[in-house]
Design a protein that fits this description.
- The two termini are 32 Å apart.
- This protein has one domain: q2cbj1_9rhob like domain (Jelly Rolls, Sandwich).
- The radius of gyration is 18 Å and the shape is globular.
- The chain has 264 residues and is α+β, with helices and mostly antiparallel strands.
- The structure holds 2-oxoglutaric acid.
- The site of 2-oxoglutaric acid (AKG) has 10 residues, from strand 7, strand 11 and strand 12.
């Protein structure tokens, strides 16, 4: 397995706005990540839960909306929708710092540019659940530079029926709704732009990963199967990026990078 992105792969990424990298995991790594993820949800992991954003999936018996996105454990259940700050977990940090991902970031941001983790996020569509995610581009108006790279890894089979990601190839060349704080499209944009273009379903094997240009339009549905659709999504940005909300981001590649020993 090469630890470098080839010129041909990079050209494909630039053309289509995404690149299928396949499985870059070591033996046994997928199972370790799957188990760790469930342990985190079940409150069994040795991680500082007060520093981890955890959001429950929608609950049809409550108001059918996902719970608040706030720090801290919300109960011993696998029915979480989103969990962030996973760079604080040694296994996930180790995975997101793979040499091949370093090579992707070096292509995107330059060999000498330190890279920070905007977010290291678990996205889950629990069995027979999940929350619709509308079409959007991954960009945030509080940042003074747009991040360009997200690497999305399937921890389970990702198929249409369990809510795989859908994306529009080549849509990374222009921002559709720059006014929206988090890149979400309006219903008009969806009707006038998305519905006139071909999308693809990103069906993946467990362990496979895909590099996404952050501006590539994507969305995902719900899960009508008995198999969860767990995924780990990491957004990498130039470490010099500033947030007007004053957020601090961990450097993961380059000078001062976080290591499994330095997780506070
Ligand atoms: O996992 C999903 O369904 C969507 C994830 C997403 O929007 C992202 O990783 O940026």
């Amino acid at each position: 397995m090469s630890t470098q992105i080839s010129d041909q792969q990079w050209a494909q990424f630039e053309e289509a706005g995404f690149l299928h990298l396949g499985n870059v995991m070591d033996n046994g790594e997928l199972e370790q990540l799957q188990v760790r993820m469930d342990d985190i949800m079940l409150g069994k992991a040795s991680i500082d839960y007060d520093r981890v954003m955890m959001q429950l999936d929608r609950d049809p018996e409550r108001d059918n909306k996902p719970g608040p996105q706030s720090k801290g454990h919300k109960g011993e259940t696998l029915l979480y929708r989103k969990i962030q700050d996973l760079e604080r977990d040694a296994l996930f940090l180790d995975y997101l710092q793979k040499p091949i991902f370093r090579s992707v970031c070096a292509r995107a941001y330059g060999n000498e540019t330190p890279v920070a983790c905007f977010r290291a996020m678990f996205m889950n569509k629990p069995a027979r659940g999940g929350t619709e995610l509308v079409w959007h581009q991954d960009r945030w108006t509080d940042l003074d530079k747009d991040p360009m790279i997200t690497i999305w890894t399937a921890l389970d089979p990702a198929i249409i029926a369990n809510g795989c990601v859908k994306l529009i190839p080549g849509s990374h060349r222009a921002l559709i709704n720059p006014e929206h704080g988090a890149g979400f499209l309006t219903e008009e944009h969806i009707e006038n732009i998305v519905s006139k273009q071909e999308f693809i379903n990103l069906e993946l094997e467990p362990g496979d990963c895909v590099v996404l240009h952050n501006w590539t339009l994507h969305s995902s549905g719900t899960n009508s199967t008995d198999i969860a659709r767990r995924a780990f999504s990491v957004c990498y940005m130039d470490a010099a990026t500033q947030s007007s909300r004053g957020h601090e981001y961990a450097v993961v590649f380059g000078e001062g990078e976080m290591t499994t020993e330095s997780i506070a």
